[in-house]
Amino acid sequence: MTSSIPRSKQAGLHLSLVLMTTMVTSAAFYLNPSIDMAVSRYFFDGEQFPLRHNGFLQALRQANFWAGVVVIGVSMALIASRRLRDAAGINFGRAVIPLVTYGMGVGLIVNMFLKDTFGRARPRDTIGLGGDQPLTAAWEMSQACPSNCSFTSGEAAGAMAMMSLVYLIPIGWNVTRRVVQILLASLAISLSFNRILFGGHYLSDVVLSMLIVTAVMFAAEWLLRQIRWEKLDPNRGRRGSSRRGNATDIAYPRTQ
């Protein structure tokens, strides 16, 4: 069965749903900061967060960094080489999306703006969880932390940005795309919630980072569809260009 919704509208619909979910979730955490405290307290033994020293979880944290390096590297290679894009069946717009997701979502919005603006103390620095700083709600301004603070989670943002790897899977590989989506989603959730176990972030820090990065990813796709990605391709019009990189094939293949 063929989808009746144009892919450009699908991108806008997905973006709208994520933005609405982000607003509702933000309101819930802002009005009920006790949710964050209750979740973090579950992993606190009265003196510390013991899972912080778990070797497997530490290794999982390192995997998050290297996964990001791989996705960014592949994205940059495809952007730089038309030959690689043609061989992989990837158009210029889809190659750009992972780089925008990491650069704008993880880098600028989460790590450079949010973490150094709201001043939220990390759970392990909060009263009742081994620290001496007051609990503040998500989106509440505070002076408890000067920089690299708890709100929101940079590592959760990076974990969610891995989902942009799906855009680098050739159109038509529907089964492969679904399998990769499931695997990446499971890995992203595991890597993100790892920060809660360590006492490094609250539930809201993790969830909102994941939603913000997802919104940036869908916004990048929607914008590229509006301006037509081929206008940005420095190699457009060269002889031998592949039709597999058609502008309509950015992310959501029609189901058969």
From TrEMBL:
| Native source organism of the sequence | Aliirhizobium smilacinae
Could you list this entry's UniProt keywords, alphabetically sorted: Membrane, Transmembrane, Transmembrane helix
Coiled-coil positions are none
Which residue ranges run through the membrane?
12-31, 63-80, 92-114, 156-175, 206-224
Ranges for region Disordered: 235-256
Please identify the protein, giving its name as recorded: Phosphatase PAP2 family protein
Quote the Pfam families the UniProt record gives: PAP2 (PF01569)
Phosphatidic acid phosphatase type 2/haloperoxidase domain spans which residues?
101-220
